[in-house]
Design a protein that fits this description.
376 residues, mainly alpha, three-stranded mixed sheet, transmembrane
């Protein structure tokens, strides 16, 4: 999530006391009481509730798309990988943002857990942010090939290639996010509200280096995590939707005969359309939620570039950061409902994996439903 980086974005420059002990509030985005209340509601309560739903939903998605009947399709491999990545993305977001919101309200045990865990959780959050982006891109490209250039489907859209692609993406995500390991650390500080020595998470000197920030965050982040993937997904979605609309207009009407082959073909095409609709919605929600986070990121850079000692950045930025963080968790949670409401094969398989009472092995299967998006 861009939100993982934003843990650091709104931290002011460190303030040091005369005895070289850092003042704890120096690494907080804002100490305004109204913002603290807003942060507790948005991150401490709403995000927590949505995140818990998302954790359960993504577990079901992984179970469905890795089931025996689904994992034979390349699209299922990508969607299972996306759900797995979203699960850990939400989990790390709950740690970084929910705990961070509650630790300021007389919760010493939560504060201790947050301060000691963040140096390890923050790089992991960045890894899963990146993997969620590229698993979504991989699923969209797989859909694009199946719908727009079906002649390449047999060569490109296979479970074996999908598994190789997933492993390659994870390798890239781990390498790309290595710098995040060196960006935060726990420091001793002076709590000027309680007049005691405490601990705080602050950005390191490495993270505050101007050259590093310019190269890694301004150029690399914009290219590989923001504008690049979003533009690609927008183009892919437009092409897929256009092709689906074109085929729906040119497809001959279904025959009125009662033969099982005609009926089965009609059901299969209708089910494939619903599966395609669910994936299009997944990509749409990803574009919407991440575009907001991208806007916040660019706004922060503009505010930082124009800030001076006499004209510091507006406090509105910290409110936008919390909102964009919430949208990232909403995005990771909404995918399950897209599959559940619009994905015919997902709903069918979900009933099968829930238990013996939902199994359908003895029913005649005339649909041949599978999320292959071919329409041919």
């Amino acid at each position: 999530m861009e939100s993982a980086e934003q843990v650091l974005e709104n931290m002011p420059e460190t303030t040091v006391m005369e005895d070289d002990l850092l003042i704890c509030s120096a690494c907080q985005g804002s100490t305004d009481p109204f913002y603290q209340t807003y942060n507790l509601i948005m991150s401490g309560c709403i995000m927590a509730l949505i995140g818990i739903v998302g954790l359960g939903g993504n577990c079901l998605v992984v179970r469905v798309y890795l089931s025996r009947t689904q994992r034979i399709h390349s699209s299922s491999i990508y969607l299972a990988a996306l759900a797995c990545s979203d699960f850990f993305l939400i989990l790390t977001a709950l740690f970084l943002f929910v705990l961070e919101a509650w630790r300021h309200h007389n919760q010493p045990s939560i504060a201790w857990l947050y301060v000691n865990g963040t140096p390890f959780i923050f790089p992991l959050a960045s890894v899963f942010q990146t993997s969620s982006v590229y698993f979504c891109v991989a699923a969209a490209v797989d859909c694009f090939i199946s719908v727009v250039v079906p002649s390449l489907k047999g060569m490109c859209c296979t479970p074996h290639r999908a598994r190789i692609t997933v492993l390659t993406i994870m390798g890239f995500c781990l390498l790309y996010n290595i710098p995040h390991v060196f960006e935060v650390h726990k420091v001793s500080c002076w709590d000027d509200t309680a007049n005691v020595t405490s601990s705080q998470i602050c950005p390191t000197t490495f993270r505050q280096n101007v050259f590093y920030y310019t190269v890694y965050y301004t150029y690399m982040y914009t290219t590989f995590m923001a504008v690049g993937p979003l533009l690609l997904l927008i183009v892919i979605n437009i092409c897929v939707v256009s092709m689906v609309v074109y085929r729906s207009k040119t497809r001959p009407p279904a025959g009125k005969g009662g033969e099982i082959t005609e009926r089965g073909t009609g059901i299969a095409e209708e089910a494939e359309e619903s599966d395609l609709t669910s994936l299009i919605l997944v990509v749409f929600f990803f574009i919407f939620c991440n575009s907001t986070a991208l806007f916040v990121n660019f706004l922060e850079m503009i505010l930082a570039a124009n800030a001076t000692e006499e004209n510091p950045p507006s406090n509105i930025f910290v409110y936008l950061v919390d909102f964009s963080n919430l949208l990232i968790v909403v995005n990771g949670t909404a995918n399950f409902f897209c599959y559940l409401l619009f994905g015919a094969s997902f709903k069918r398989t979900l009933k099968e994996v829930r238990g013996p009472m939902h199994k359908t092995e003895n029913r005649p299967n005339v649909s041949g439903i599978s999320p292959n998006y071919s329409f041919v």
